[in-house]
């Protein structure tokens, strides 16, 4: 076993792979184990490679094995090899964006979560009601009166006087006798007050109050401007997606968050306008409605892969 | 304004205008399907937009587009074959063992990422690795199945680990 010290990550990875295979083979003795420990202690890059190898094993261990095996060990290697030769593609390097899209583990550990396209409503022990929008996750700690928004969007209605705190990556929202919607994205959090008023504690800067009909963005850099919104218009909490002369591109980006899989459209469709009120529980039907009212057609490549194209025969 | 000072969007626009029809035609002939070809050609331009390659610096834009397009085409077939195998496996599972509908899509995405990760490994190495990780077989059992020595399996496993870890470096 080559256990010389090196900070080259490639060599570290190679050594980690060999150590792991040795351990798994059952052929490692006490001396080998001691050597492995010494190798790991020698250099930070060694330990890092070792941890990465463990994480790799864990990724496979978390899968339902029968299903994963029939998918990953599917019998069509011949065709693929032929295809690759035909393409002249020798080394197909996986793209980074695919690798990074792993199962979000912290979502599974959350108390409550929804899948893409799913919405959920629960009553908390204190009489508050919590609703989760599509692809969302929260940790609820009723005893400490805390709801942590891990991902996605929630709506919380607190009828009592005892305040509840919503924790986000961009600050806290404290509410009692009020109703609020919080949507967390990579860039920040949008807080909209539907009833009563709430206290906001941004990561930096002074706390502020937000009243019914107002919304604001909490971002890492600070708080955006307070703007009014229509608190009476139906929205996702009623299972409705509303559009008022909206750009089709914006509408589809929103609709896409409710659909598992890929939804895409030709750039020239981006600037069409859409108006209407659509039911979120059947997004295929929303697409069919769009196709009926706009010059576009729906092309389903696979069950999870839909493309909107300009209608060709529109004269 | 010189080319070098042009915003990326502008040059992408030119690239799209000048070569999209040609690329789509090439893909259509390969795939025999206009809609899929249109999709993949759009993907190709998106990938170019996302890459660090300066469009204004491209000497042979069509050769570059073709390289990216070929890679996406192969990727497309691979993803489709995985999805088919996955749906077939789901369909053959007893109702109470199958994952809930809400988990199916996430699981497929994970499997696709792992499928890409394993891409490029020789068939036997890939199988040895999957049997070890997913079925929990030991090296002796894998050696018996593949009719090779345990020593070979150890080499296969090290190769597979190294391959996956290198991809993620």
Structure explained in plain terms:
- The complex is a heterodimer of chains A (315) and B (169).
- With 315 residues, chain A is of the alpha+beta class.
- Chain A has three domains: 1-102, no CATH class; 122-228, Jelly Rolls, CATH 2.60.120; 236-310, Phage tail protein beta-alpha-beta fold.
- In chain A, 30% of the residues lie in helices and 33% in strands.
- Chain A has helices at 9-25, 30-42, 44-61, 65-72, 77-87, 96-99, 105-109, 248-256, 283-293; strands at residues 112-113, 120-123, 129-132, 137-141, 146-158, 164-168, 171-175, 178-184, 188-195, 197-202, 208-211, 214-219, 222-223, 227-228, 240-247, 262-265, 273-279, 296-302, 305-310.
- In chain A, the strands form three sheets. In chain A, strands 1, 2, 3, 4, 5, 6, 7, 8, 9, 10, 11, 12, 13 and 14 form a 14-stranded mixed beta sheet that branches. Chain A has a three-stranded mixed beta sheet with strand order 16-19-18.
- In chain A, a hairpin with a 2-residue loop joins strand 6 and strand 7.
- Residues 77-110 of chain A have low confidence and may be disordered.
- By secondary structure, chain B is an all-alpha fold.
- Chain B has a domain at 1-94.
- Chain B has seven helices and no strands.
- In chain B, helix 1 (8-31) packs antiparallel against helix 2 (34-50), helix 5 packs across helix 6 (139-146) and helix 5 (123-135) packs across helix 7.
- Chain B is globular and about 60 Å long.
- Classes of the chains: A alpha+beta (315), B mainly alpha (169).
- At the A-B interface, helix 1, helix 3, helix 4, helix 5 and strand 18 of A face helix 2, helix 3, helix 4, helix 5 and helix 7 of B.
């Amino acid at each position: 076993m080559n256990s010389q010290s090196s900070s080259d990550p490639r060599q570290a990875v190679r050594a980690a792979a060999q150590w792991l295979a040795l351990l798994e083979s059952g052929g490692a003795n006490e001396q080998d184990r001691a050597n492995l420990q010494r190798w790991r202690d020698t250099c930070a890059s060694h330990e890092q490679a070792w941890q990465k190898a463990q994480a790799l094993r864990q990724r496979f261990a978390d899968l339902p094995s029968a299903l994963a095996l029939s998918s990953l060990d599917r019998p069509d290697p011949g065709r693929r090899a032929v295809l690759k030769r035909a393409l002249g593609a020798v080394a197909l390097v996986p793209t980074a964006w695919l690798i990074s899209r792993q199962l979000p583990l912290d979502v599974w550990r959350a108390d409550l979560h929804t899948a893409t396209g799913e919405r959920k409503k629960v009553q908390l022990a204190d009489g508050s009601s919590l609703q989760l929008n599509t692809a969302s996750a929260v940790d609820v700690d009723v005893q400490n009166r805390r709801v942590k928004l891990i991902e996605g969007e929630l709506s919380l209605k607190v009828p009592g006087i005892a305040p509840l705190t919503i924790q986000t990556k961009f600050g806290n929202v404290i509410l009692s006798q009020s109703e609020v919607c919080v949507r967390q994205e990579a860039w920040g959090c949008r807080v909209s007050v539907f009833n009563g008023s709430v206290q906001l504690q941004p990561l930096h800067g002074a706390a502020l109050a937000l009243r019914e009909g107002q919304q604001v963005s909490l971002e890492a850099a600070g708080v955006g401007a307070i703007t009014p919104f229509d608190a009476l218009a139906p929205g996702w909490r009623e299972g409705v997606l509303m559009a008022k002369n909206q750009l089709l591109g914006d509408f589809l980006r929103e609709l896409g968050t409710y659909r598992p899989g890929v939804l895409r459209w030709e750039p020239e469709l981006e600037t069409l306008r859409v108006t209407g009120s659509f039911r979120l529980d059947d997004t295929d039907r929303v697409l069919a409605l769009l196709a009926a009212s706009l010059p576009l057609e729906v092309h389903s490549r696979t069950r999870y892969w839909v493309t909107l194209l300009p209608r060709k025969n529109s004269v | 304004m010189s080319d070098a000072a042009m915003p990326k969007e502008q040059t992408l626009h030119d690239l799209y205008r000048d070569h999209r029809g040609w690329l789509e035609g090439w893909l259509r002939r390969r795939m025999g399907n206009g809609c899929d070809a249109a999709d993949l050609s759009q993907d190709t331009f998106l990938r170019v937009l996302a890459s660090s390659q300066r469009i204004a610096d491209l000497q042979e834009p069509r050769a570059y587009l073709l390289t990216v397009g070929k890679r996406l085409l192969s990727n497309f077939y691979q993803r489709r074959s995985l999805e088919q195998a996955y749906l077939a496996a789901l369909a053959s599972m007893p109702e109470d063992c199958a994952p809930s509908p809400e988990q199916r899509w996430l699981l497929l995405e994970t499997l696709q990422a792992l499928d890409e990760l394993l891409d490029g490994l020789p068939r036997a190495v890939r199988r040895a690795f999957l049997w070890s990780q997913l079925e929990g077989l030991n090296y002796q059992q894998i050696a018996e199945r593949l009719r090779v020595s345990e020593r070979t399996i150890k080499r296969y496993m090290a190769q597979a680990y190294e391959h996956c870890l290198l991809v993620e470096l």
